[in-house]
Amino acid sequence: MTRQDFEIIAQWIAPQSRVLDLGCGNGDLLRHLQQAQQIHGYGVEIADDRVLACVKQGINVIQRDLEAGLAEFTNHSFDYVVLSQTLQAVHQTEAILQEILRVGKTGIVAFPNFGYWKNRWQILRGRMPVSEDLPYQWYDTPNVHLCTMHDFEQLCVRLNIRIRECAVMTRGKRIHWLRNFSGSLAMYRIERLT
C-alpha cells in the first residue's frame, strides 16, 4: 500500500520532471514517483544501509551529508527538490531551505508538526512527545529542530519563500480543520519569491 503522503507529493509533481530527494532513505518515495509520474530522480542519503537499499531498488543515489550543502548541483538543475520528514533532523535549517530553492525550481518539504494536539498533550503531562511521526525518545532522537506549522510559515516569510500549497495529514488522512492543532504531518510546496 502506498503511503498517503507519497500520493500528495506525486500530485504536486508534473510528469517527466527532474526530482532530487534529499534524505531519501531507502528510495521508496523516488520509486513511487518513477512509477506514478515517470520522473527522472536522484536521491541524497548519508546512511550506508539506506544507500544500499536505494541501489538495490535501482534508484540513483548520492551518498552525502546534507549539512555540507548541495554545491555539486547547479542552479535550477531540478524541477523539484523534496525534503520529506528530514527537515527536523538538519542543523542548518535556513541554509537547506535556501539550497532547495537554488537547486530546484520548486521545493516540497514535509515534517512532523510539533503543534499537533497529541504532542501538546504529552508536553502538558511533562513528557517529550513520542508518536508515529516522532517515534524516538528524547535521548536517542535524530531530531534537532522540531517546529509547528506556524513556525515554518513564519520562517518562510523571513526567507522570502512563497508557500504555493499546504497539505496536512494525520494517520494517512487529510486534515482541513484546525490544521496546526489536528495535523501530525505538514507538507508544503514552496518557491522563491521573485
Offer a quick outline of the entry.
With 194 residues, the protein is an alpha/beta fold. 31% of the residues lie in helices and 26% in strands. The longest helix has 11 residues, at 93-103.
Keywords, separated by commas or semicolons:
alpha/beta; Rossmann fold; 7 helices; 194 residues; 8-stranded mixed β-sheet
Major sheet size, sense and barrel closure: 8 strands, mixed
Mean pLDDT across the residues is 94
Give the distance, in angstroms, between the N- and C-terminal Cα atoms: 39 Å
Alpha carbon gyration radius: 16 Å
Q: Note the beta-strand portion.
A: 25-35%
Report on this model:
The protein is of the alpha/beta class. The chain has one domain: Rossmann fold. It is 31% helix and 26% strand. The mean pLDDT is 94.
Layout of strands and helices, then pairs:
Layout lengths: L3 H9 L5 E5 L5 H10 L2 E6 L2 H9 L4 E3 L14 E7 L8 H11 E9 L4 H8 L24 H10 L2 E10 L2 E2 L4 H4 L2 E8 L2
Parallel strand pairs: 1-2, 1-4, 2-3, 4-5
Antiparallel strand pairs: 5-8, 6-7, 6-8
